[in-house]
Design a protein that fits this description.
Length: 207
């Protein structure tokens, strides 16, 4: 039933949003030759729903001891985000209860102007009941996007009710229990690979 609901959501988003917009995966134009995983990732704080249910700053370190999957996108994304989040949700659904206790998924919106916490909260639950949505004003958001090697660009629409879309990089970041990046998964990485990387990180002992 869960997989069916996700599939229905994806088909609905693809049908409704594609009427108004186009979305594409882009390569970070600011990327340097140095792309080692050790040079990306790290601690951050963005606005979301805290553990006590209130709106506030949520940090990566709040989940220390858990493996974290991070994806940058936006809720009105017509195809790229739903595709990747569906693959991620399918992988999460295959985790055992014990594995899920050691895992957290995070969706970071690069569209803070439209993606309020209410919008984010509804959106992420379609993919994972435990997923949390974070964002912030560009001054706080952009440094986090940059430190993970991601990138986004607002694209105005002249004949669309949405006014603009966002072209963006589309990678899933797997963060180990110690807060360090352990895997970067490309756009449309199959669920079985995502599941494998999550399980490897859960089993990995911090040095």
């Amino acid at each position: 039933m869960f997989k069916l609901n996700v599939l229905i959501l994806v088909l609905f988003i693809l049908f409704s949003n594609s009427i108004f917009s186009q979305d594409k995966v882009i390569t970070n134009p600011n990327a340097t030759v140095q792309t080692n995983i050790q040079d990306r990732g790290g601690e951050f704080s963005l606005i979301g729903t805290t553990s006590n249910g209130e709106l506030g700053w949520v940090s990566l370190s709040d989940f220390k001891g858990k493996v974290v999957a991070i994806y940058f996108g936006y809720t009105k994304c017509p195809d790229v985000c739903p595709t990747n989040l569906s693959f991620l949700s399918n992988a999460i659904a295959q985790l055992s209860p014990a594995e899920k206790e050691n895992f957290q998924s995070i969706f970071i919106s690069v569209d803070p102007g439209r993606d309020t916490q209410e919008v984010l909260g509804s959106y992420v639950k379609y993919f994972d009941d435990q997923m949390i949505g974070l964002s912030a004003a560009p001054d706080d958001l952009d440094p986090v996007v940059a430190q993970y090697g991601a990138y986004y660009e607002k694209v105005p629409f002249s004949n669309s009710a949405l006014m603009y879309g966002i072209d963006h990089t589309s990678e899933t970041y797997i963060v180990g229990k110690d807060g360090k990046l352990v895997a970067i998964l490309n756009h449309a990485t199959p669920s079985k690979i995502i599941l494998q990387k999550i399980r490897e990180a859960i089993k990995l002992k911090n040095e």
